[in-house]
Amino acid sequence: MPTSPLTPDRQARIDAELAANPFLAEIGVLFESAGHELAIVGGPVRDAVLGRPGNDWDLTTSARPEEIESVVAGWADAVWDIGREFGTIGVRKGDHQLEITTYRSDEYEAGSRKPEVMFGDSLDGDLARRDFAVNAMAIRLPSREFVDLFGGLDDIDHRLLRTPVTPEQSFSDDPLRMMRAARFVAQLGFTASPDVEAAMAAMAPRLEIVSAERIRDELNKLLLSPHPVAGLRLLVGTGLAEQMLPELPALKLERDEHHRHKDVYEHSLTVLEQAIALEGRLEHAPDLTIRLAALLHDIGKPRTRRFQDGGTVTFHHHDVVGAKLVRKRMRALRYSNELTDHVAKLVELHLRFHGYGSGEWTDSAVRRYVRDAGDQLERLHILTRADCTTRNAKKALRLQRTYDELEERIAVLAEQEELGSIRPDLDGGQIMAILGIPPGPEVGEAYRFLLDLRMDRGPLSEADATEALRAFWAARD
Fold first, then answer.
1. Where is the HD domain (predicted)?
2. 250 part of a folded domain
3. What is residue 351's DSSP assignment?
4. Whether residue 190 has pLDDT greater than 70
5. Distance between CA atoms of 158 and 442, rounded to whole angstroms?
6. Per residue in 349-388, pLDDT tens?
7. Does 267 lie in the same domain as 119?
8. Distance, CA of 398 to CA of 263 (rounded, Å)
9. Is residue 269 domain-shared with residue 353, that is, in the same domain?
10. CA 344, 345, 348: angle at the middle one, nearest 5?
């Protein structure tokens, strides 16, 4: 198809990238001298055209894996072959990492979760098997010849995602490409072409042959993108979300004209956007934990919805139910236990603040809030604030001020009592010595009593804590 020209400014961007990374020309000469073709391909070329900085370099070559290793031997600082079965050899040169892959095409056999690797013999054939035209551009090395066989430049001009071959063939070769389409919508602000979107909707069930780990990794990249909501809308609209995150489309609850409740799906997307806007409070951003928690915080609502007289709807205990659903889904997607625990904790606690009312909590309640949040307290602050999506400006301002007050109380108590590491005033050894008991369940019972006492009354002297412990133990018999 006709393509846009490589304009002077785009050529200048490419030249600047190559000049800033002279090792690319060096390795190009090495491969050429050995009789092999080599080209930069995929994301690095697209990003150079867009003027986006890149750190990782993907290269493709006519050389087979063992030939790649032979060519870079003595030039590379390190070589690894963890991707050999897929034709990929990893190379480190200075601070730069390169992945060099033999011309190839990956295709899934029916019912298989692993792609069959087939080596090719031309750059043109390799580019035809790329996921999208914007990723099917190349720069030959060392000649710097720009290759755009499928209109990638034109698609960049129109901010469009198309496939080099038919979308049906592309997505059949690798169904994960359907999720990549949503990820690139979120990352680049592009739009999927109508035929791509139609193929995604028709072929969504084929995602079932892709491993949970690959799906999880694509979902993470989407969520950590600048505009994740756009990508999520595409996943839901095409039915892909139903295959890998069905709790998300389930939030599109049927509306009843006689009952009033927020649009839970739209509310959740808004909470995600508002949480992203508050990520500056965290040490590192973007933050996958808070983004997952914001997206999933209300997934317990469909299971707990009840209609009441007078046109109201309730979702009692949707926080607890939601936390259980989060654990189930995140385990299915092979998330780590640690991340799963953090997200589930945030979902379970996201309503706790609403018991604060107009500031009636005792110091004991504030201590328990901090204690229960643990190391997720700052993220809980973000999620709770983001969860306010009311259009009532007065109500929104009142909630903000009330939470400001809660955070101020936490800060004061934290300064006085080291809230982040609340422990009983007596340790296990002291408990056993005072009560004359051996290690065992009874020590834990006494420890929990002292912890509750610490929560209720704040720090106690050793004498006061000992007296309280003796009284508790005597009353227990």
1. 264-383
2. no
3. T
4. yes
5. 70
6. 999 888 777 777 888 888 888 888 989 999 999 999 999 8
7. no
8. 22
9. yes
10. 85
